[in-house]
Description:
This protein is an alpha+beta fold.
Amino acid sequence: MKQLTPLDASFFYFETPQQPMIIGSLWLCDQSSAPNGIVRYKEILQYIDDRLSTTSIFRRRLVHAPLRLDDPYWLEDENFDLEYHVRHVGLPQPGDWRQLCIFTARTMARSIDMERAPWEIYIIEGLNNVPGVPPNSFAVLLRFHHAYVDGRSSFELSVALMEDSPKHEYGRRDRVQYVERAPSLAEMWLRTTPRLFGQALRGARAGFDFAAKSLELLNRLQTDARPEQTRVPKTIFNTEVTPHRSYGGYVWTLADLKRVRRLVPGATINDVIVAIIAGGMRRYLIEHEALPADGSLIAMCPVALRPDDAKHEGGNVISAMYIPIGTDIADPIERLTAVRRRTASGVPLAKEVLCDLGNAVGELVPAYVRAAAAWLQGKTRLLAKIPLINTVITNVPGIPGTVPKYFAGATIRSVYPLVPISDGAAISHGITGIYDNLNLGVLADRKVVPDMDFYIACMEASTREYLELAAQKEAEEKEPAPDAGPTKRGQAKRAAAQRESEVVA
């Protein structure tokens, strides 16, 4: 058995009926590449069984400590039932993108049975009118509990379901043997009791680490990581989440993002994405007369810390940076410049200080206290009343290279991430790469964002604005015009302001 880390356990403790802590992805699959041009559900079951049987990680379920006095453990489920975890559904026709998003949103609003291995796969037939895939395609919706995986490890588990060829050898024999036995109550007490008595020592050690990292944090915040904004504005996203969701997606080409990156020296692709999202959120809030007048929205951006040799182990190995994303800046180039400057100081702080500080807090506070605090939050919903962040923006590692990947013989055409929302952050943005594209997946509380199509249109408008500026810069570089530079820049700013004031179609 492997015990959950305090960070892993926190995702379990903060689970509520209206706040399922589920992470996942949505695949669009073209079955025309499969033998005979069709993939049957029984073949998919056999394919998944073949692919997952090479590791035991998909069979893990939770086992609780006696009286839940300590963090739970992962145990290999000797009664694992694959067909319970894989579901088969069909979209109503015409089977378009909107219907797929509605199904995805409703499914992401549901919790996962934590008495079994906490993951599910939905095979969704009937995609006949979805851009980017031919008729008679299907989708694969993967759901993992966040206590089970973080963004990177969920992707690594997803990759386990992919192959480099449409021809699969069914009936693989390289299967892992499962021999783990469920412990008795007495055995669990034998595990838990020493940890309870050792909590004082662990707490003392963690207290020293906490004090040291707190001092380092204070020093960094006064020097190289000095925050440009200290207050988190109250927005429509800082509310209690309901059990209902909306979902949408958007696709950028890597080539376009690289063009935009050249607008600001030193900017990264991540910086460009954050700036585009900020521009889209700004448009959306302006149209709803809800843009804060007292500063930028603050995004929590997870930072992966998992080493390559541990990428298949599951669990959460992450930190986070907290940055103003520039929703208060109308000029797109100034916004991207600000994002580049803020991430340049935010990433080192997350890796070198905040990660260790979070781990120290987890060890300092006993498990039952952390569980009680999560229960109290679920009852009082304080995080919805006291804004700590406004949204989540996370970049999940994508499929490397441009070689097609296959699922049961079907070509995987596109992948969209799914990131949970919570009280006080009722909208999330996940980004992942596939081939030459970067895909955005937006999950929101349906009461907060009932018009997801319009929200995605705002993202499209923000992208178009940056691409127009990139095209202008490229034209200026080809035909230098020293006297026209300031004029053109002024024209671009006026045009951006005019576009921002218009309703996005």
